[in-house]
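> tool_call: predict_assembly(chains=two)
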Amino acid sequence: MAKVNPEFATEIKKYGAHDFNACFNCGNCTATCSLSDNNSSFPRKLVRYSVLGLESEIEASIDPWLCYYCGECSTTCPREASPGELMMSLRRWLTAKYDWTGLSGLMYKYLPFTIFAFLATALAVILFAFSKSFEVDTIMHFGHQFEMWAIIIVFTAILIPNLARMWWFVILKPKIKVKFLTYVKGMQELFTHMFTQKRTLGCDDSQSRWLIHLIIVLGYLSLLFTTVVLDWFGTNSLFIILLGYAESIVLFTLTFIFVRGRIKKNKELNKFSQPSDWLFVIWLFLMAFSAFLVRIFIDLDFIETNLWLYLFHLTVLVQWAVLIVPFGKWTHFLYRSFAMYFEKIKQPA
Amino acid sequence: MKERIGVYICHCGGNISDYVDVEEIGKMLKTDDGVVISKDVMFACADSNQKDMISDIKEYKLDAIVVASCSPKLHLHTFKNVAERAGLNPTNYVQVNIREQCSWPHSDKPREASVKAAGLIRAGIKRVAYSESLDNIEINVKKAVLVVGAGVSGMKAAIDLARLGNEVYLIETDYFVGGHITQTENLFTTGQNGKEIVSRLYAEIKSYNNITLFTGTSVEKVSGSLGNFAIDIRIKPRYINGKADLQAVQNAMNDCTVLVNDDFNFGFTKRKAIYKNYPEALPDVTVVNAEALKNEKEFLAKHASCLDLTQQDEILSLTAGSVLVTTGFDSYQPKEGEYGYKTFSNVVTLPELNRLIELNPDKLIFNNKPVKKIAFIYCVGNRQTKGENKYCSRQCCSSAINSSLQLADKYKGINAYHLFRDIRTYGKQELMYEKSSKQGDIYIRFDEKEPPVVEQNEKTLNIKVKDYLTSKKELEIEADLVVLVTGMVAREDSKQISEKFKIPIGTDKFFNEIHPKLKPVETVIKGVYIGGSCQGPKNISESVQSSLSAASKINALLKGGTVSLDPVIARVNNDACVWCGKCAEVCEYTAIKEIESGDKHIAAVNKAICTGCGICAPVCPTNAIEIAQFTDNEIESMIDGFMEKIDLKVREKESESTEEVSGVKMKEYPQLWKNILETMNGNKLTIPEISEKLEVDKDIITYHVMTMHKYNVVVTEGMDKKELYYYYKLKN
């Protein structure tokens, strides 16, 4: 017996959902959705769950992650109930739900908190630089070290426990029995989706969205690899230097297109940008662009006298690594692929 | 006896003449007794023929005419008018239906159809020979109307009738006017307070000298008929001395300590035994609850100047030309235990909720507890497929949603759940549903077979319901207050009212109009009209619309001071009548009364009431009563006419042309069938092939070939394997 909870509507509205109460369950959204199928029928079902506030049903559902927001449901909704935006908000709500620290929820719901966290990290970077007497080499060395440690800590302390929570919500708590061998066999699904996002191809809208997104993901991952493992800022290898340039140029150009899309609201999915969406694309752009400039300054020997540029890059990097990656939109990279994985292993063989 | 009769037989352009040999019949009837002219015409209803008929009537001095054509429903009045224009009394006209009764149904047997038509026409001729010239009955009517029920419908109708110059008697059983709408603070879709509307209407009523309002008054006895209804009304006393000054009454009211349940607030509050429904209730005269005060000797003695418990009911006689019944409805009263009503204290009906909303200006508090979560359960006592009230009450969905919007508007933090079967906020009321669903009201659809179950929890009510919108997921809802959205039922006293005025009651117990579309406010009783929700569930605007339409009907009726009625009514032969009373017994309209005539008692027919239904004629043992235009002479001569031998030479070609193809006998196949058969020409063809060859749409060919197949005209033979179509061929 599920309990109706009208407060849930108020809660989910803080995550960006709006007007979904207007839904009268015609099912146009599900009919028009090219990804919805018999196994996972959305968004109508989730709209209904949200209206009724059936929290446990929603938290056990991986359907929000199976939607890639083409926006077709929102444009065809006769009640203008914005089902697409509700799905987006449910993803934010689920992200907060999975996060054991609770910081994710705070950042989604309260903009002042997010601003405070970003200002605090910026201040921390400046204070750190001050403590090192603004010495370029020390700071750059630290910056490189930070990247590696940040990745390890964020993954072990936050992301892996959160993934475990997701596992608990969608598999263990609803008492779905999955054999160990199924877990192993499903791995292929996990990595295919993590690195190709091939499910997006099922959406009816333009496939260029998938292509640009794919290039951004690969560009981001390779730039990360180039800076962290290949030490782009410290290397003398011409190949690596040029590789880094190429990667950063691709990344900031394409993220620029994404930012411009959100400003112009040219698609249904760009109509209702939340702070978390803005932060994600802008910081990705800033990170790639500032890294590009830092490397140019290094190559032109300007960096010694223009430490502010590196500090700016480092600030963006730190904010990205300690705020956006563990608590912000970055996590969709993991949750989406794990959702596909869980979806696969949930199905009886 | 009419001896110069004209007979016109219509071809109806082939509709009749294709099967009935109208020419031959016309020739045959020429020699019948009394027939002066008999002819067949292409279209009897055509203007040219109408002119010919008029000149015939004048030239040959015809005294009666018969037209044999279509149903009298279609052209009775056309030819009555022709007769009238030619100076003939329209009652000397008879129409015979040889199209619907001969040519159409008997197209397969043209000979028999012709014989039947000839018989019917001859019967018509015999009947018209005995027809009398009758004039319409003129009745003087009194320009006064009794309006029963001073709710919003009755008040509006009374105002309009008075404005048009009629004397209006407006009576109301309650001591105060306005009815149900005074109990609602916010009416959809205008958001007005019902009390304001009533005050406005009351002020308007007061401004007319020709409206007399009686409150605390009911209908005691009704007699008379259209134009002159004699109505006795019973006026209950207010137990207030009419001569006492207002201050004294006010003092008595202030002084009164006896409290009784306040019925106006459904017993949620108490009121003094000297009361008004609400402070501004109209008319502005207090009422004494005599029952509650009868033992308060001291109090009564103190205020003896204004209180008078010895007052008795008063009977008053009125005369009215017409009656408008606007008695309204009762709200359905849930049975004890229906969704926990009366078993759990926090289950109320929608009208009760509306009182609660008005009684709680800032915070909604019920049974000393604040109310935050409200669950509405719709269609209570309505739309019961197995129960008594099968109808939908039209206004309850809108009313409930309006209350829900008002709750959200008036109080903070209210959560509303709507457990509905279907939402019927038709027309502009849909906007309320839109607003309500967008403001976050939760709508849960259930089925009549699996209604919600209301249970009492420790602190709140718990409702279990299967949500049809999430594939019957079982849901649990906590609510502080459960509101049963009850519909409308016929008033408890509707049976008594119906008996007094003889208004028929439907199976739903509401009053019945003659025809829902064509005579929506008229009843079978001449001069008695119905308006508002006594007729069936209506919202306020619909109620007012119907009562105003009745008002305009009544005004049109009374305007001239006389009413002209159809002369087809019962007549008594005074010499033959011995007054046994049998006719009066069977008359459903009480049109027959016993009167004294000379030295004996006989039956008399009230011309205004009699509808000419004819039920009295066959029961009369002395054959003293008959119906005009349906006298024994007319009916018997018709039978004789029909029985006479028909000597008719029918065209032979007709029977020859009857085609007989393998079992089906048909005078003639439709042209398309012939074409199809021609196209087949012994070969087998598929439907698309036929369609292509004939250049006729495939759907039409499919339909016809299927029908031909059904009647064994064609049979299938094999199949086009590639296109998957059957081959059809002519049956051998």
